[in-house]
Amino acid sequence: MSAELILQTRGLSVRYGQIRALESAHITVRSGEIVSVIGANGAGKSTLLGAIMGSLPPAGVATGEVLYRGQTLGVTPPEHRISEGLALVPEKRELFASMTIEENLMLGGYVRRHEGRSALRQSMEEIYEIFPRLQERRKQAAGTMSGGERQMLVLGRALMSKPRLLMLDEPSLGLAPLVMNEVFKVIARLRDTGVATLLIEQNSRAALQVSDRAYVLELGQTTVEGTAAEVAANPRVIEAYLGHRH
Ligand SMILES: Nc1ncnc2c1ncn2[C@@H]1O[C@H](COP(=O)(O)OP(=O)(O)OP(=O)(O)O)[C@@H](O)[C@H]1O
Ligand SMILES: [Mg+2]
């Protein structure tokens, strides 16, 4: 598969009033690549994903460019970005609490409605294969699910849109180790189908293991970049993010 340039940010900056949360971030992600962004709390990781998705909180003002498959996204609203193939699983897992798991998944496939119901059903079956728990609970209201089950559902819902660029903000948060391994396996399998993944993960070690390339974000700036192996071998990275158990 040829590696298409899926995402490129150029001088992407975000301010929340006086706070400069992101300062001229330059990031690229190609098809079939898993790229992780490592950084301390408050470094600007979620802000970066929000700026790419066009879903920053109202206080956030972005400048610079986000190019998706060579086209600048400008003021394209998030719904359009989803139709274009971007998907974000944000830090705040928002679900339609009174709807069932199945209804939530179907909503995730809304942008593919022209493909017809059976195509969406097929996708849903694939997600149930990955997360059997979701199938067991498919008629349950999303609002009554456990934290880990919610995690599975938000990821499943993002996959229903068949993204080309999947952005995950700490997908393993609250997941049991076995389920977390499952999530990382899913990401690796998606890579083989050409999906580009931009991954943020508190567990830097696990993130680097599954990634092709990585960036370190410090105070809103990308300070280190390289292959995952290079970044994992960087003394500063070892000291700050890998050397000690957090
Ligand atoms: N709506 C907002 N208004 C004001 N400041 C904000 C807002 N959202 C984020 N910030 C600030 O911007 C900075 C970057 O926040 P961001 O959430 O992007 O960090 P992060 O790297 O995702 O951190 P974490 O690892 O804790 O999730 C922080 O200093 C944060 O307090
Ligand atoms: Mg965050």
Strand residue content: 25-35%
Query: What's the β-strand tally?
Result: 10
User: Which CATH first-tier class of the largest domain would you pick?
Assistant: Alpha Beta
Number of domains: 2
Helix content: 25-40%
Strand order of the largest sheet: 6-7-8-3-9-10
Radius of gyration, CA atoms, in whole angstroms: 18 Å
* Helix/strand class: alpha/beta
Bound molecules: adenosine-5'-triphosphate, magnesium ion
CATH topology of the largest domain, by name, is Rossmann fold
CATH superfamily of the largest domain: P-loop containing nucleotide triphosphate hydrolases
Mean pLDDT: 94
Q: What is the 3D form?
A: globular
- Contiguous low-pLDDT stretches (5 residues minimum) are none
| Strand and helix order | EEEHEEHEHHHHEHEHEEHH
CATH-level-2 architecture of the largest domain:
3-Layer(aba) Sandwich
What about the largest sheet? 6 strands, mixed
Determine the number of helices (DSSP H or I, runs of at least 4 residues). Answer: 10
Instruction: Quote the distance from N terminus to C terminus.
Output: 38 Å
